[in-house]
Amino acid sequence: MRRYFRNTIFVVTSVLFYLLWNSGGEEVYAKFLKEGVQHFTTKISAIETVYLKQEETKDKIIICFKYPDRTTKMTLDYCMPIVLLFAWQFSLLFDSRITKKTALKFFAINFLIVFILQFLFPLLLFDISNSKVKSVGLYIGFQIFGFIIFFLILKDSILIRLKAQQQKYNSVEN
Q1: Most buried among 44, 95, 128, 167, by the most CB within 10 A?
Q2: What residues make up the domain containing 131?
């Protein structure tokens, strides 16, 4: 019954975090991501500066990467799977098989993995217009973050199940 409770929390918080994302959360995360790109990615790439721009026609936030010869723009749609990660991590706080400390440790590790990959992602944009292979890589990259989140959720589930089985085995042994 408790697992159903955690799953219900996951579904409800997914919807709530999605609504939060659409009502300003995207902009907050965009600023957070911009700072990561500005402080790290610009030092290892040809990106000179990064800035945010509001696209009025589609009501989207655009992150712009200024190269020496051009500016490349990208929507933050590739970041939206973070909503699922936040909902999953929140639901783990209600999982009775693990402690809150373990749930927070899972969150720190998972968020760090995804955030680092997301602020390194603009490196794919370099010289994108001159290469079909890179444009395919960019398209795949847009999709890959959903899969990364899925595999992180799968990893957490397996680790939780293994830990619960080990605890059960240890309690039977004693």
Answers
A1: 95
A2: 2-173
